[in-house]
Every structure is written in structure tokens, then in C-alpha cells.
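In the previous lecture we treated proteins in isolation. Real proteins rarely work alone, and many bind small molecules. This record shows how such a complex is specified: first the sequence, then the SMILES for zinc ion.
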Amino acid sequence: MPPGVTIPDAQNIRLQLQIRGVVQGVGFRPYVYNLARRHGLAGFVLNSPRGVFIEVEGDPSTVDAFVAALPAEAPPLVRIARIQQTAIPALGESGFSIRESGGGESSFALIPPDICVCEACLSDTRDPQNRRYDYPFTNCTNCGPRYSIILDVPYDRPMTTMAEFAMCADCRREYEDPENRRFHAQPNACPVCGPRLLLGAPSNPVPAPISARSILEQVADILRAGGIVAWKGLGGYQLACDARQAAAVEELRCRKHRSEKPFAIMVADAGVADALCCVSDVERAALVSPERPIVLLRRRPDADLADGVSPGNPSTGVMLPCTPMHDLLFRILRERWHADAALVMTSGNISEEPIVIENAEAEERLAGIADAFAHHNRRIHTRVDDSVVRVVAGHTMLLRRARGYTPRPVWLGRGEAEVLACGAQLKNTLCLTRAGFALPSQHLGDLENYETLRFFEETLERMQRLFHVNPTAIAYDLHPGYLSTQFALRQAELRPIGVQHHHAHVASCMAEHQLEGRVIGVAWDGTGFGTDGSIWGGEFLAAGYTGFDRYARLRPVLLPGGDSGIREPWRVARSHLLDAFDGSMPAHPRWNSMASRERLRIVDSMLQRHVNTIPTSSAGRLFDAVASLIGLRHSVSFEGQAAMMLEAAADSGSGLSEAPYEFALAGADPIDVDLRPMIRQIVSALDRGTSTSEIAGRFHVTMVAVVTEVCRRMRDHLQLHRVCLSGGCFQNGLLVAGCLESLRAHGFEVFIQREVPANDAGISLGQVAIACEILRGES
Ligand SMILES: [Zn+2]
Ligand SMILES: [Zn+2]
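The predicted 3D structure, ligand included, written as C-alpha cells:
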């Protein structure tokens, strides 16, 4: 009998647990080790390509307590997707150990995202007696950079951008001690051995390293003087300026070529956020969450931010410091300047290009934007932009999924097929599958320029290497003009699977909630290529993973002049007017001032003669049209701007408590939702002098009534009672809250998207779900 093994206690049981999810490189093994020892259990924990294996042995009630505590008390980065339990014979073992993994096999591990600094590390950096006092790169097993610094698997220091920093004796001791918070923390570092901050200027070479505090004191002085600083954050460079100095904010807009799209701000803590914005409990939880996203918050009327931060928008995106470096800057600002500093904190890029990550690249590409640079010498391997969330009806919804979330997997569980999905065009993401998991990429951007396409290809290559994915099939959108579609069709060795845009939206929502069978899919967005070659976007689908029927749609109107129809909502407003008034414009001077006389004449003539127009059922374009009809906005500088203003107007008025406008359901296969009666009512309300906010409110009420009415019909005809709401329109808080309330009141089970955005960034998840199900059906 080998040492350490005795006759098994007859009472004892032994369990084998296979745990899948993000369980490697996140302090899970030492956690299990300490938990098992605390419970006095024997056995071991082991990493393997199929997840983490644990065997525990002891008396039944203690083993049960251990199994219950396992997910409940897990470290913050751990994400358990599944636990499989098998009872095996007790061995009479004593003691618990962390076993070395077998090695040799092709390894597949889920990698954790970059997570904000934890409270314990923050205390270290704030304590003058601690050896990490003021050290900007402090981290531990529970916090710090991960995805952005990992080059390859297995996740081990030599496979990260920390490889070039050799741990000092003190750091090494922490790293090797299973009871230390920094046990196997691959980015472990201290001022003696770790990365350092470097100060640069556009015209100057980077000078010799000086202390982090003195660099950030200089940064603080530049910000205070109204300057713009580019500094290297967790997933890329950020551009900062004082959010209270109008001239600084205007200068940043001008240099960054960003006319109106809101800037996010960063403040020291939730208390400062509270002073500037109304913060609910759920919003506060999102602000302080380890993912540290930008949270859209309603500004207080007396908030003293420059108007240029979020012009014409009642909300501002707010985030809290996510690294010790950010925290140190705010401490310095507090000491030297302003107790409640608010900094604009926006991606370090020009216009819509990918975020900059390299020191030299920053000095070159951001030279015309930043007055100074705060670099550091830890390389960012993978660019991950800041994430954006919004709380709607008590739910935190993702608008942009990147830092803090990516590469968190979504459990699909539809077979082992390895598939690549290429996403859409705007707000592109790609998605891969491996071992039953979907792995959505970070936000990549609009696939409209060479840099973003390169970012797409670079991300694909890196994710394939990291997760050992060799796709056999490629899923893509049906739109022939999308660069993602063209990329897919060039991959001759992969089996192509075309997926209709709105079907992908619905499947994405289904996949998130692991729904089977058929559902009512309400997919409302701006633009998606239909199976009939027209532009869809106001769709009611009876959908499963492998197919759908288009049960109803918004009755199509003509969209004049392609892309400019999207930038100029007045064009589609014109189309709705002509449609609702039998081909002639209603008489009122306001209709003559939507654009120049000449342009109005040309567009009316295009619409009347059906020249250079395309029919669309788009709900997004309808929101734009109504915003223009009531005079809020005739042209926009970014997608969704008019709809955002419409929502803000509705929220400020009394229209939300009014009855809906009239609409009709006509025809069949698909049913047309005829909104001409509503357009005529809106025009006469304008003629009577009704306020725009009241009309905007009643319009939202009408949209909720449309969704409810069509869903009821679908339930009556098809016996479906589960509704999936997806598409960019379902980021409108009033629409989501209204639909949730109304549909639930009518007995529907309603699902919205929370793990991936409801907009086109979520499409790649739907595409892989559909492709995997098709492949599973064939095998
Ligand atoms: Zn920590
Ligand atoms: Zn050290």
C-alpha cells in the first residue's frame, strides 16, 4: 500500500467533479485547495483540457457542504458553466493536493477577461507602508489584466506580455505560496521588478523612467490646464481631458473628428457619479462591478459638465477607475486640484478606427490629438475597448461588449462542431465555437475601413490560436455588400452557411437563454438584408434555430437614396408622409423646411416615380422618420442619434400615459402592420400644436401596442408564448420596458439580451447557434 493511503473509512464517499467554464488561470485551483482543506477533505484538483477535475473524499455531509460552497464562494473571475458529478469508490486517501496537469494534450482553456483592480490590491497601493504603494501595475489572482496580455496557451507567465519582466524574490515567494492571494497570478509585479510608466510628448523622445506618482502629477497638471492626454489603459490608449472645461472638450472633438457622438467620463467613485447623475441601485452595481463598464446614466439638471460631453443628450456614459493607475491619478487630482474631478475618457483612436495599443503607434497616430502621452512598458497584445452598458427596467443590457467581458464564453451546448461566424457590417464582432461554447469576440467596430478589417482578421487569427479552433463551417450575413460576408465567401475551404440577419438576431437571444423549439422573434433594427432582396428591419418571425417564417412586418415604405437615407432621416420622413397622404404632401410650411427646396423636390420625385428607392420594413428608419416629422432632427452625425433624441423627448413628456395612435393589421403571409393612420394622426397633432414630447411618448406607446397585438395574434395562430426581443431598437429603454410590461401582463414569457448586445454586435452569436444546430442535425 503506498504511503498516505489507509483502509477507507466505511462511512466515507468520494466524488469526482468535472467543472467547465472559466476555471483556469483565475485562482480556482488554490481556491479549491483551501476550501477542501478547510472542510478537512482528502483528494486533489487538476487542470485538464476538458476543464478542472476535482476528487474529494470524506463523510457525506461534509462532501455535500463542499460541493454547495464550490460555486457559491468562488473567486470573482471564475465562471462555472457546468459541473458534472460522478460517485467513485473511496480510496482512503489523506490530505488534499494540487496536481500538475498531464500536459502533452492539445489544450483548450477558457481565458478570463481583463478585470478591474480588486479592493485588496487597491488597499496595497494606497498604503504608504506597503511595498506596492502607488504602484500602477498591482494585481493578484482575483484581478488585473488577462485577455489583453495573453499571447498563447497554456496561460502561464512566459505566454503573456509579462514574460519580459523577471519576478523579484518577494514576488516569486507570493507566486509560489498556495495560501497567498498572488499564488500563480501570472501578471504579478511590484515596483522592483514590474512594468513602469513612461512620460512622452508628441515631439519628444520618451525620457528616462521616473516615478509613477511624479508622471501622473504632470498628467494631472496638463489636464488641469485644459490639455489632452493620451494614456495607456488596460485594453488600449484612452484620451482624457477635463470634462468641465468646455474649450478642452471642444478641442478634443475637433482633433478627434467626432462632432456629436457622446464622450464617456471617468470619476473617482460612485459618490461623484451620484453627484452628477441619477444612479439607481442596479446602475451603481454595474458601475462598481469587476467588469467596470461605461454605464449610461441620466445627468442631473445641475450637473456642471461641459455641454460638449454629450450634446443634446440627457444621458452621459460614466465609468469608475479600473486599474491602480486610474485610481492613483484620481487620488492625485483630489490632492492637488479638485475633490470631484470628472475626466472625459474616450478611446484613443481617430474617428471610428480601432483603439491604439502600441507606444510608438500612439505617438504617431495620436500626435495631432494629444498634448502629452503617459505610456508604460507592458505591451498590450490584444486591443479591447471599454464596454458600455445601460440599465433598462432593472436589467443591465450590454451596448458594447469588450473589456471586462470578452472572452467570456456563452454555453451553447449544441454539439462539438467548430464554426466561425463573421457577424454583420456595423458594430461587427466575430464568434467561434469550441467544445460546446460560443466565444464572441470583443467589439471590433464598423467594417468600413481597412484598419477595422485588419482588426477583424487579427482577432480571428489570435482567437483561433488561443482557443485551438479549426472551423469547418463559416456562417455569414446574406448582405452581399458586407465586408464580413465577402470575407466569408473567400474562405473556399470552409462550408458556407448564409444566415438571414433578423433570424440571427432572434437565434442570438434564444442561444443566450438556451431556448429550444420555436419562439416569437421580434427583431427590430435599422437595416438587414431580407431573403427577398429588400431591406428588412421591423420583423415578427416564428423562429427556431434551423428556420423561420416571416409572420408579420412593418408595412414597407420606400427608402430614397440608400446610405444618405440613413444619415438624413428627413428623406424617410418624406416617404412616410407621401405614403400616408396618398402620394401628395400635406399642406403646412413646416414640410418645406426639412431640407433645401431643391433637395425636397428631388427626393419627392424619386419617391413618386420609384427611382433609386428601395422598399424597407425597417423599424429603425421609422423611429428616425418620426424624429424628423416632429422636428427633432432632420440629419444625424451617427447611427441611432435621431432615435436616441426621440426616446429622450418621450421620456420628458406626458405622452407615455396616453392611448396608442391608430394602426391596422392587414393581409397575410406576412401580415403588414399599417402605420399610415398613426402618421396622419401625428400630422394633425402637430397642426393642433401638440408638444413634440407628447407625440414622441404616444409614438412609443403605439410601438409597444404594435408588438403586443402582433404577438397575441401569433400566439392565437401558432400556440407560441415565448417572445424574444432583439435588434438595435431594443436598446431603447422605453420600448424595452414598455414591451416587457405589456407582454408579461398578457401572459407571455419574454426574453431580452443581456450577455451580448441586442444590436448587430450580437448577431455573430445567433449565426453560430444556427450553424451548429444545422451541423448537428446532419451528423
Ligand atoms: Zn487584486
Ligand atoms: Zn517584484
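Summary for your notes: The chain has a mean pLDDT of 93. The chain is about 35% helix and 20% strand.
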